Amino acid sequence: MTRVWIVDVGSGNVGNLVKTLKQLNCDPIVCCLPPPSFDVICLAGMGDFGYVMRRLRERRLDSFITECLETGVRLVGICVGFQVLFESSEESPGDVGLSLYGGSLKKISNINGTATSLHIGWNSVYTKVGHETQSYGLLPDAYFCHQFALPADVNDLKRLDGSIGESQEILIANSPQPIVAGFSCGNIHGFQFHPELSGDLGVLLLKRTLNL
Amino acid sequence: MIGLKKRFGLSLFFDEGVLTRTKHFEPDYRYTDKYIDSNCADELFLIDVSRTLEHRNLFHQAIGRLRENCNVPMVVGGMVWSIDEIDTLFSLGADRILIGGLLTRHRRVELLQKAVAKYGSQSFIYSLNLGFESDGFVDWDGCGFSCNGLSALELNELFKRVGAIELLFNSIVSDGSLQGMDSRIKKLVEEDFSGYQLAVTGGLGTWRHCVQIFESPSVSCVCTSNIFHFSVKAIQNFKANLCRAGIPMRISI
Question: Which of A28, A49, B197, B224 could make an SS bond with B204 (beta carbons 3.0 to 4.6 A apart)?
Fold first, then answer.
């Protein structure tokens, strides 16, 4: 049974994620400090970039998570947990993310050049393979709720530790400008949307991510 | 259809923990959540319409029960007066919190700023309970007891201070009527509160009413409940009709 440590930073609801993981026969453990053993680290919740990073740093979990990755532990970031995998966010100027990947999250309104800053609801997701894009299955919808995003006009995600990334799969959504909706690369996976609230697509992606 | 869809929200009102239908903000009759096809909705709105906090634990139990049986996002509100209660609702399974009188009546801006700093402003929706008088709209408290007495300008200032992004407009006059949204709300949406994402509820009785509401580009969500009681597949049919009318909706679940 895959043991998933859901890092409790006291921000947002992780109850649905726990329920979905149990349905997938995983063993979710929600706690703020590392449990005795785990196979997957999950950063989840709907919160503020700076708040989450400060909670991680207070407990020195930022360096702990990075060290775990070197031992092959899988990391899954969801929503704000996806965002903190990158360097920074316009949401919290001055707060540095885990910086596993290069890039800064921008306010949706700045990406789109519109007044609307909230990307909420169900949106189609498609994959980017090389320079091509293709639909993901039958264009199922995923549930998004965020106001900062990583523009998809950058090239492939770049690891900041200098390692050569393994084959990447990048998911894109149009907000309406393209944003990175998720990615999978080696043992690091991220979803800007909520797979646990996204029906069949979410369950499929979580199963693949957790190697079930 | 590719791209962001419009949302259909299912409003579920609880009076002392029991699901109830409302009419003009008064509990009308009680029923069971077992006949609601909640997973077909794009979002659930769970609202406590009890007049006191005496049986709040029953509402909490209802949230947990629904969370256990549905996989769509839940917005929870009604009688939210403190950070502790916000924390509690998130821990019970709320994905977002609906804020009403805490801002518009009690003006607890600093408290809400703290909550936003923790959970992010996308985690909160601010509700306005609208009635109309000869000289314009009136925002009432959640029980319809008293008027908050704020102008559109003052409300916009409050919303700005807490970083509001999304508002829920609820029509007291139309609530439970099934006769369609009050046309004056459409005017408000377009003229006085155009800088927000908007959800609207109150009076929607057919899918055609929703098509009219979605004509306003800033409306991203319509909420209704009364037309779906005791029915099976009704929500899918409702959304299919909206799609045929050119409104992008999520059909698959």
Answer: B224
